[in-house]
Amino acid sequence: MTNSHVLMKLENVHRTFQVGEIAVHVLRGIDLDIFAGELLIIQGESGSGKSTLLNMIGGIDQPSQGTISFEGQDISKLGDRRLTAFRRDQVGFVFQFYNLVPTLSALENVATATEIAENPMDPAEALDLVGLSDRINHFPAQLSGGEQQRVAMARAIAKHPKLMLCDEPTGALDHENTIMILELLQKINHETGTTMVMITHAQAMTRMANRIAVIADGKIGKVSHNAAPVLAKELIWS
Q1: Where are the domains of the chain?
Q2: What mean pLDDT comes out for the span 28-35?
Q3: Which of 80, 93, 187, 229 measures 20 to 30 Å from 41, CA to CA?
Q4: CATH number corresponding to 36-62+79-234
């Protein structure tokens, strides 16, 4: 991550939702730089605004106020077509729940992303990267939870995105599969240089990040650096 440039910049980002006559302020002036090639963890309790912030970064939602720039371009004011192109070409998503199509094989699930991407890798290559080359013709119901999440990761990385966003990616997994998924995320980050932003409430995971941004009540309270991030298998869980 040495001498990395700023890939994405958030400035004074607010997000307000209207619930009847009540305005709910979820994000309250977020300022955050995301550096190319880094593994950034956004850590916070439930209801702190983590997922809303990730949706802003990924172009799923747009801010009520403020700007979000990707490689110098303000994406916060793009129309639907250009925002869709940004998500399709630049961003890979991994969620807590795998969102696989049950009637498609692992290979076909990955192909749903590669068929619309600008510069995709071969779906079989992506599945090999996550250790599933022997399961490409299996359907989601024939795969364990950890294997399904690995298919979801292969689908995300197969687009060759510059930015990979992970929303509690191990939240539905047991300890063994959690470590496996975190190891794969580190591998993808290190080997492909893909910028990775992961949100979690788990304190233990923060030790594997280059930087940690703590969010509370819709604001970034502190951003800290890890001089020596640890490997996922070395994490200590309380």
Answers
A1: 36-62+79-234
A2: 94
A3: 80
A4: 3.40.50.300
